[in-house]
Amino acid sequence: WTGYSRQVQPRLYEVSLNANNLRFTLLPEIRQSELQSDEAYVLDTGRQVFVWLGDEAPQHLIKSATIIANAYAGTHPADNINMYVTKQGLEPTDFTLMFDQWDPDMWKKIRDYEADRERELRDNEIDVDK
């Protein structure tokens, strides 16, 4: 690696792409809870770069995964970096190890909680017109 230290802190970026404007926003912490199902992210470990696509990410982000990877690679200081695209629920070990605590069921738990909460709210509605 020419001119690139191996002691690089991993970084997590949120990806936004609108009207052909691609932006990488550095997130302050690398936490699984930062990964939203309707978004795309870039995780840079220093040796590898992962483009992570949430299950509910918009089609324009999914279709642009290779463009996102290549655009980020163009900003990377390493001469040669391994790039990967991964989807929610299919994360490789090298990806999940970058997070302090990884729960493969986190998104299911969130969906279950939201469904239970919605059901509870529906069951406890009060009709004030009666």
From TrEMBL:
It comes from the Eukaryota. The keyword Hydrolase does not apply. One of its GO terms (molecular function) is phosphatidylinositol-4,5-bisphosphate binding. One of its GO terms (biological process) is actin filament severing. InterPro entries: ADF-H/Gelsolin-like_dom_sf, Gelsolin-like_dom, Villin/Gelsolin. SMART domains: GEL (SM00262). Pfam families: Gelsolin. Keywords: Repeat. The keyword Magnesium does not apply. Residues 30-60 form the Gelsolin-like domain. GO terms for cellular component: actin cytoskeleton; cytoplasm. This is Gelsolin-like domain-containing protein. It comes from Pectinophora gossypiella.
